[in-house]
Amino acid sequence: MKKTMFFYCIVFFSTSISAAADLQLSDLAFYNRCFSHLTTKTPALNDPLLTKIIAGQISAENACVSVLKSAQLQSNGILRNKNDRVAKDVLNTFYALHSHWFMDSTLVGVAAINNSGLVDPSTGSVYLSKALFDPKFKYQDIFDGAKSYEAIREGSTNLDGRNDVDSSRRLASVMISTDPNNNNYNYPVYIYGRHDVIRSNDPNVPDTYRTTGRPWSGVRFKPHGDLIGFRDEPELMVPGTAGAPNTPRVFNGSKGGGILGNRDYVMRTVNLSSVNSDGGLIMPRRFGRAIFKDFTCRDLPVVNLGSDSAPYVDPNAKDIPFRTNRGCVGCHVSMDQVVGLLRAYSTTVVGINRAGTNIGRIEVDRPATISSAYTWPTVRDPDYYKKTARGVFAYRTLDGVYIEKPVNDFNALGNIFKQLDDTYLCAATRYFKHFTNMDYPVELIKSPLYQNDQNAIFIRQLASELKNHQDPMKTLESIITSDIYRHASFGAGE
Fold first, then answer.
1. How far, in Å, CA of 85 to CA of 154, rounded?
2. CB 178, CB 214: distance < 8 Å
3. For residue range 269-300, what is the model confidence (pLDDT) as tens digits?
């Protein structure tokens, strides 16, 4: 056994690719490889599929596809068998994988302040995992509409004796109360308790906050526990905010364009409390950088530094120094223009906890007060953030096609990402890397360097098929059942 393992290691790491290219894994070795990629674990000795493989009743490839599909969701968004540990492991494996596809996969800075437990840092993973495991949810749907989604988890609901700083809390509920008729109104008040709805006579509410007639808004902690599926996230309205008790605020949801306009995603990527954009130096540009990295796998610049950026260079733009250099403009032309949609980005804190600490930072809309056509000024404009939120999508595809389209809302931005070949090539390369640990940069995968590389050809095929059938599950099936995945060295590009 030791000699066999040693032999496999030598073959796998050998620089002599041709010797490894013809080496096919046995059914058992293949199933172990595939099972570990799907669950991050090894199959149990009494695994029924393993028994069938040994008996010749099922192929190793079909057994792996069966493991993958065990994590498919029912129409209610929950695993078909939520008590199946393997199905949960598959769901969690890809939920974790998808969370690492994002430039900002954790809450830091402003996005983290006051939001522990209220904002899900892996919101993007919810959309991608839903696209993989929900048969009715297409890949392009992650860029569609104003609906948002959240994880469904199972865990303990016993919250007795716990409070908002207890890191071990499970399925905690948080409520906001506010009295709009109170002239001394300051902030809504967060109350932590065991129920989704806390009434004014609930014994768990401190005496200080037990005021008859207060309206309640059911803003909850994001659930903890075992991931068992995904559901539509109900839009929650905060009754008011400091200084504006009669102005309701949307606590969650999306501004359109699916994940692109999701408020959690926007707040996490912008990571500022507010921005009075001036069209030049002050812009929420981290969002513009993130969407290209997150959904096309490309770092800036995503245009040619010569022909694409040169028209935007103004040697007289001394007020905005980067506009005088086409190298600098090469990055700003894409990220700065698209964030014209967020020019009036702002957040507010909507509550306090029992300790008197501000809590619950949310992203809010500030309507334009000046109707204006889109411009990208070469002089800083102090009224830029007051003007109609519009932007431009500037991008050169990996096939060399230059795109410059106006985007007047997040749905328009989402429609562009739906149609980009690069969106699907990005997903295909990431899934291929997960199963093979072979990293093919999207910027090079269509270049002459990889023109005849069999793995690159296969990835390009996966991307094209994904754009057509819109089903990531089929993409994973294609990888699992491919000759490349059967190779001990994954074909090694041969």
1. 13
2. yes
3. 888 888 999 999 999 999 999 999 999 999 99
**Could you tell me where the beta strands, DSSP code E, fall in 43-185?**
149-154, 173-177
C-beta separation of 87 from 71 below 8 A: yes
Cis peptide upstream of residue 301 (ω within 30 degrees of 0): yes
Judge whether 351 and 176 are in contact, CB under 8 Å. yes
The pair of structure tokens assigned to 465 is 């098929």
Q: How far apart are CA 128 and CA 132, in angstroms?
A: 6
For residues 111-147, one letter each, b for 16 or more C-beta atoms within 10 angstroms of the residue's C-beta and e for the rest, the string is beebbebbbbbbbbbbbbbbbbbbeebebbbbbbeee
Q: What is the pLDDT of residues 128-176, one digit of tens each?
A: 999 999 999 999 999 999 989 989 888 644 333 333 333 323 223 344 4
Q: Which residues contact 159 (CB under 8 A, 6 or more apart)?
A: 169, 170, 171, 172, 173, 192, 193, 194
In whole angstroms, give the CA distance from residue 441 to residue 361.
37
Q: How far apart are CA 31 and CA 19, in angstroms?
A: 22
pTM, entire model: 0.85
pLDDT, tens digit, 9 for 90 and up, residues 21-50: 468 999 999 999 999 999 999 999 999 999
Other beta carbons within 10 angstroms of residue 385's beta carbon come to 26
Rounded CA separation 49/38 (Å): 14
Determine the average pLDDT of the residues in 76-89: 95
Closest CA to 230 of 68, 144, 364, 120: 120
- The rounded distance, in Å, linking the Cα atoms of 232 and 150 is 6
- For residue 409, give every residue at least 6 positions away whose Cβ sits within 8 Å of its Cβ, in sequence order, or none: 255, 256, 257, 341, 389
Residue in 95, 101, 123 with CA at minimum distance from that of residue 38: 95
**Cα distance between residue 66 and residue 300, in whole Å:** 40
The whole-number pLDDT of residue 104 equals 74
Give the tokens for residue 131: 């696209």
Classify residue 221 by its DSSP letter: P
- Paired tokens of 429: 């390369």
Q: Is 394 in a helix, a strand, or coil?
A: strand
Mean pLDDT of the chain: 81
